[in-house]
Amino acid sequence: MTTTAEQLSATTLLRFATAGSVDDGKSTLVGRLLHDSKAVLTDQLEAVEQASLNRGQEAPDLALLTDGLRAEREQGITIDVAYRYFATARRRFILADTPGHVQYTRNMVTGASTAELAVVLVDARNGVVEQTRRHAAVAALLRVPHVVLAVNKMDLVDYAEPVFAAIAEEFTAYAASLGVPEITAIPISALAGDNVVEPSAHMDWYGGPTVLEHLETVPVSHDLTACHARFPVQYVIRPQSAEHPDYRGYAGQIAAGVFRVGEAVSVLPSGRTTTITGIDALGESVDIAWAPQSVTLRLADDIDISRGDLIALADDAPAVSQDVEATVCHVADQPLSVGQRVLLKHTTRTVKAIVKDIPSRLTLDDLSQHPAPGQLVANDIGRVVVRTAEPLALDPYEYSRRTGSFLLIDPADGTTLSAGMAGAAFAEAAEAVGTADDDAEWDF
């Protein structure tokens, strides 16, 4: 007889992020999702009910399940992403609840960077607003493969199908122009519970899934083993003991792909080639290892390898360069300027760099590029050209979220300045998105 823990360990995991403008009802949606899926503890629900009564409300205000932390963020105590963990019989979930205010848009980068799905909330009375476009742009930049448009507060527009259809059409056209591969629109009322967990009795014209049903069934089986093999070295193991006098291993987590004993590999940025003679995993020797396993590779030759080097298959190695062209989302309060000296962190490697140029800043209203802005301020999305002191082996971000991303860091105090995605921006890659072949190459 299987236990509940065994059943949950056998289910798949979906990481998703929620985003929406202020007062679109995101707190209520998250609260409704947790409440109706039975993911709220009894004492938590009792506390919400008591707080609602103290406010003079007859029914429990489910937004209070998350509003405590959100209020702290908005008051400047913290502006971090709030994470919620819950599970159903069909799937486990990690929910990244991101703030709605414009000044905290940068936090969506944190919440959506590892997400496989983003829920973008829209108030049915207001439709698509600038913040909606900004969240769609961030989701597209981060190559989030599935986007859900939740048109909320349908009860305040009399559950009118034309209102939902107009919003869905506008948002879908905008998101598709950014290269978002899949968009699902769902009309909901988070306050009343319509189409959140249970189907709505007020919208018989809608025949699609509820929010929870879509979350439980959306495919998340992208195969990292089919991607380009990449192994960032995290640590060099040399015991030099009596039992292992000549042991030399390179430890780390496989970022993507598969490595096998006997394969020829290149060590970057030096470009030296050698052969894998052994793979150690959990204290045992194995013949094959794949992402995202943490292993130790043993190589045939004693090559000078240190933390930050990248091991790839010899016939499929990324290009090495000191010039990085990328799209960045600026997340720091201090601006990023041309000529500024920074640190660039890519996988396990951190190098000195200088911002050579900021060719453009993105205007979200019409997706036009504002040329030569000179600097980027908090929440800006723009193109940058960075020159590094040492060569780096970056993949285009459109092919690998793991080895195509990097951070720009202030060398003075270690503050993260910008989150970067190497290669073409979404607007340039949008035409290539949408076919099965191109989608299969995305490393999610």
Put the structure in a nutshell.
The protein is an alpha+beta fold and 444 residues long.
Question: How would you describe this structure to a colleague?
Answer:
The chain is of the alpha+beta class and 444 residues long. The chain is 22% helix and 34% strand. It has ten helices and 25 strands. Strands 7, 8, 9, 11, 12, 13, 15 and 16 form an eight-stranded antiparallel beta sheet that branches. Helix 2 runs antiparallel to helix 4 and helix 6 packs across helix 7. The radius of gyration is 24 Å and the shape is globular. The relative contact order is 0.11.
Core attributes:
444 residues, alpha+beta, eight-stranded antiparallel beta sheet, six-stranded mixed beta sheet, 22% helix, 34% strand, globular
The amount of helix comes to: 10-25%
Structural class: alpha+beta
Q: How big a fraction of the residues is strand? A: 25-35%
Outline type: globular
| Number of helices in the DSSP assignment | 10
Mean pLDDT across all amino acids: 83
Major beta sheet summary: 8 strands, antiparallel
Q: Which stretches are low in confidence, meaning pLDDT under 50 for 5 or more residues running?
A: 4-10, 69-79, 427-444
| Ends apart, CA distance between termini | 35 Å
How many strand segments? 25
Q: Rounded to an integer, what's the Rg over CA atoms?
A: 24 Å
